[in-house]
Write a structure and sequence with these properties.
The chain is of the alpha/beta class. It has 13 helices and 14 strands. β3 and β4 form a beta hairpin. Bound molecules: phosphoenolpyruvate (PEP) and cobalt (II) ion (CO).
């Protein structure tokens, strides 16, 4: 471990990397990137690691959410605030219902690289490099647009910094103030079946806040702000390498572009470059775990990424699919528990439930997302482990990309407002509905658990 360096991943096979036509140009851009100021601090990173360790103990709940992919074109005030509004409303529902602090991690300020199923995309007999996210190339189907351009590393960093700066300014300026939940209302939400329940909850919170401040005799500062952390998939390793630094007061290497990088399912190989990179940084890291992973494969990856079994370091994000989770998950939970590995378990009910409609839309059914999540809670309860968080793709924009939910969106609705160029996202109502469902489901699981532990009628 002492010999680990940010560039060492280059000695391993690196999946999902673009081929840059000019290696020297790439190195020049990386050299520029290395000199730019960081986007987050080591102190924040270590705080998040502590919070994640607490989530693993059941003292906090993790809410990680945002776009499948950010784009430079959507780095604007409305998109950023609307996404923040949804996440804040969801986290209020979770805090209120679970009676736990929520760790909020956005999939933003750096989510610009995407894994693809093929290196080349073919249309009408023409074959071009696949679009790999705005940090690599452009989505238009032209030869010029698809050439990987290393200048985009710098643009991605700048757009991440602008996003981060705006989020921090909003939060510090009182946007997340519990005294003013009306700041998080979305203008376009006219009537939503969930609004009434949400309003009731907000009123109850308002009353508690006023009551506590009356007791304290002064405004309580901690009601005025919340912590927001950032995350992105650590996919494009040249970028991650260039933003990995040492700092004066904390030992080790930190990825200072984000608080929480994660390894995607397609780049999770034990002997691959992504595991090698993530192993050496002090940041907490996530690892996506798909349905084909066995316990014998998973345990060595856990040990490789977290050799000291440090609490908070590793979050396992299972993304199995509603049809597979009951078969695939139990043996993993059992093995990790049996071997005493410290991990936070988090559910991504999105990526195992993607399908295509007859008219060519990539979509997800709300009922499958919900079913995977509900099963997740039950499977964890049965295994004696804890589901401590959820990982979602969502947006504050008024989109129709996932089917079902309170308004029961159908295939026909998808045509109305399908905006994603990558994966389909939950819209505001579907997101809030899921947050309420988590509260209800987790409450029920806990009740059942305490009923089991309660002495029976014959006991003394
Ligand atoms: C993603 O989170 O956008 C993603 C590609 O997920 P996975 O690696 O789980 O497929
Ligand atoms: Co996605």
């Amino acid at each position: 471990m002492t010999t680990w360096t940010p560039a060492q991943w280059r000695e391993r096979p690196a999946a999902q990397q673009p081929t840059y036509p000019d290696a020297e140009h790439l190195e020049r851009c990386m050299a520029q990137l290395r000199r730019l100021p960081p986007l987050v601090t080591s102190l924040e990173i270590l705080t998040l690691k502590r919070h994640l360790a607490e989530a693993a103990e059941g003292k906090r709940f993790l809410l990680q959410g945002g776009d499948c992919a950010e784009s430079f074109g959507e780095c604007d005030s409305t998109t950023i605030t609307n996404r923040l509004k949804v996440l804040l409303q969801m986290s209020v529902a979770l805090v209120h219902g679970l009676k736990l602090p929520v760790v909020r991690i956005g999939r933003f300020a750096g989510q610009y690289a995407k894994p693809r199923s093929t290196d080349l995309e073919e249309r009408n007999g023409i074959s071009l490099p696949s679009y790999r996210g705005d940090i690599v190339n452009a989505p238009e189907f032209s030869a010029q647009a698809r050439i990987p351009d290393p200048e985009r590393l710098l643009r991605a960093h700048a757009h991440s910094a602008m996003t981060m700066n705006f989020v921090r300014a909003l939060i510090d300026g009182g946007f997340a103030d519990l005294h003013h939940p009306e700041y998080w209302d979305l203008g376009w939400v006219e009537y939503s079946p969930l609004q009434r329940e949400y309003r009731r909850m907000v009123e109850a919170i308002g009353e508690s806040v006023r009551f506590m401040e009356t007791l304290a005799g002064e405004p309580i500062g901690s009601f005025s702000r919340v912590d927001f952390f950032t995350s992105h998939e650590a996919l494009l390793l040249h970028y991650e390498e260039a933003v990995t630094r040492q700092v004066p007061r904390n030992p080790g290497w930190f990825n200072l572009s984000t608080h929480f990088p994660w390894i995607g399912m397609r780049t999770a190989a034990l002997d691959g470059a992504h595991a090698q990179y993530c192993r050496g940084i002090q940041n907490p890291v996530g690892l996506k775990v798909g349905p084909s992973v066995s316990a014998d494969q998973l345990l060595p990856v856990i040990d490789f990424l977290n050799p000291l079994n440090e609490p908070g370091k590793l979050t396992l994000i299972h993304r199995m699919g509603a049809a597979k989770i009951a078969v695939a998950l139990p043996s993993l939970l059992e093995a990790v528990r049996r071997e005493g590995r410290n991990v936070l378990w988090c559910a991504d009910p999105m990526h195992g439930n993607t399908e295509s409609t007859a008219n060519g839309y990539k979509t997800r059914r709300f009922e499958n997302i919900r079913a995977e999540l509900e099963q997740g809670f039950d499977i964890h309860a049965a295994a004696g482990t804890r589901l401590g968080g959820v990982h979602l793709e969502l947006t504050g924009e008024n989109v129709t990309e996932c089917m079902g939910g309170a308004r029961d969106l159908t295939e026909v609705d998808l045509e109305r407002a399908y905006k994603s160029s990558v994966d389909p996202r939950l819209n505001y109502e579907q997101s809030l509905e899921l947050a309420m469902m988590i509260v209800h489901k987790r409450g029920r699981v806990q009740e059942e658990e305490s009923a089991r532990l309660r002495p029976g009628p014959g006991a003394t």
